[in-house]
DNA sequence: GCAGAGTGCTTAACCGGTAAAGGAGACGAC
DNA sequence: GTCGTCTCCTTTACCGGTTAAGCACTCTGC
């Protein structure tokens, strides 16, 4: 029968100690399940703590335990991206699910660029506001990894692994997914294929592009890559550019759901039938991909699980405090064929076979 | 020239005091800009603090200042909703923008239902993990408001105002927006109009429905309302139900972007031309509404600003500590006509005029 | 009958800040 | 000369926990 805490003074272990007629040290032992108390005293203290509705004061505990019981996540993309793309909210949902089960808080912040992101890490760690951070959107020669190591702030790289293996990471086999995609398009008879990538400075985007080049070369396809900044506008521009070519690609693979949906709209506006004239593939499934016409073929991943996995990895890194943890591979993206992909126009397969 | 903090021991005010040859009290005065120090000493202390790269330990400060420097937000909807609907990420982005400028953290948590949400508030407040919370998805007879008042936890109701005015709130004039919408549909000649609402237990959804009934009655239209649980599946069911009627509505207004987009798909699948046979309107604009064919007419709000506004309101409530703050009205949703709405089929206006 | 070990609790220091109270020294007034 | 006042800094207590060290008491063994 927990009494009403009301808006009055907080219940502290001193209150418990007084009521139980013991010292506050004894109360602390009881509440933390440490040995050195008789069964009866322990039970009495716990009962009183419950009656008074006691909860530990986070700051007080952090001060001695040197634990913030919070993990951090900084997003250094424009705020709009957060809202527009399926990846982040889904990833967040997965992270949250993992954290809330252990009463660890998630501290979220948006930053304008990588430099201010690093500044946030520095501040968070100096203030001991977080115990560790999840790092997303790894860049080529990323300044964050070096700084995180220097600070000694536990971190997990989402989308690694990192060269050198200095920080633990979670990752997908992007290469295998790209190979599956390119083989699929080749099997449909496509010869001129293109990829609309995200920001080339991002490791996940550039590694997919590299895999794309390799796979098209191996299968003797013509492969082009155009860059964007993940905004719908840049995707529209990229698509227009590709389809204005005298010999436009007959299949375009995009690096996100937003890019693909925008590209689809542009293609249709330009009079291209989808998938009659051009096939379209998205990366990461979402409602967006399913409601357009035709619905988009995608490379789907279980993003919430990815978030949970990253989170577990981070919590482990915090406990180990740096030792090992290593890299963990998540299930790779799987091709989900829908209406936006079909055979290459003009039976390219026959022409090529001749 | 801030020296490297490295992975070593934290810099504390004791380190600064020692290096400056003063007591830690003096350092505290200097760092907090309090009077009682000579100009030179103050400057020296600040310089050394900067050199050592000192940041206040959040927990230590919280312990005496009784401030967590964090705000809380609990979402008691299924995790999927977070990812699927435009509202939350956009709202979050607005909240974040406001908070990060004052180095207040946002603590986010997902809950399965209102009861566990209340439990989270109780815990957060007892642990002094947050200074205040934003409450979204206000329900009819919401148990949260009473509990928040009882606890004395500063809170802002998003989507109020609350009857009784006990807690400060931010709100839109939903009624005016609904009236504008219904007038617009009536002007297009629609007589049988329907509304697909969200969860009827939510205040914003039920108040819109009430306004919808009132507005249709006033304009002598036939108005129906069907409920959903905000999932695409429930919207598909609702739409199918409405359009299977012997006298189906010629215009359907949905309570979110997701509901509307799903409804559009179902309508087209059932052979209804949009907007030829049935007009469709969404609530809250998003990329989703713009990429479908036809693009959806929406009631658009500036959601990030709404988030920022709510956040400023909360910070004020925390400072005042309960006194006043009151309710603040945000700009109401504006109708953005696009291709999904058109004249009622069969020149309903003429028939009605006869 | 007393050393030694174990049990069960208390005391006190500490984490890193904030802030009230106190005190040394300079200076002016009478 | 000494009293009051002002400036500038130190001392100290405190926030709410954790934890090492200490200590009284009982039990055991010889």
Element layout with pairings:
2 copies of one chain form a homodimer.
Chain A: H1 13-20, H2 24-31, H3 39-52, H4 58-65, E1 70-75, H5 79-84, H6 87-100, E2 105-110, H7 114-127, E3 132-135, H8 143-151, E4 155-158, E5 169-171, H9 174-187, E6 192-197, H10 203-218, E7 222-227, H11 232-243, E8 251-254, H12 257-269, E9 279-283, H13 287-291, E10 297-300, H14 303-320, E11 327-329, E12 334-336, H15 348-353
Parallel strand pairs in A: 1-2, 1-3, 3-4, 4-5, 5-11, 6-7, 6-8, 8-9, 9-10
Antiparallel strand pairs in A: 10-12
Helix pairs in contact in A: 1-2, 1-3, 2-3, 6-14, 7-8, 9-10, 11-12
Chain A binds a DNA duplex (30 and 30 nucleotides) through helix 2 and helix 4.
Q: How would you describe this protein?
A:
2 copies of one chain form a homodimer. Chain A is an alpha/beta fold. Helices cover 47% and strands 15% of the residues of chain A. In chain A, the strands form 2 sheets. Chain A has a 6-stranded parallel sheet, with helices on both faces. Chain A has a 6-stranded mixed sheet with strand order 7-6-8-9-10-12, sandwiched between helices. In chain A, β8 (251-254), α12 (257-269) and β9 form a beta-alpha-beta unit. The radius of gyration of chain A is 26 Å and the shape is elongated. Residues 1-6 and 348-354 of chain A have low confidence and may be disordered. At the A-B interface, α4, α5, α6, β2 and α7 of A face α4, α5, α6, β2 and α7 of B. β2 (105-110) of chain A pairs antiparallel with β2 (105-110) of chain B, so a sheet runs across the interface. The structure holds a DNA duplex (30 and 30 nucleotides).
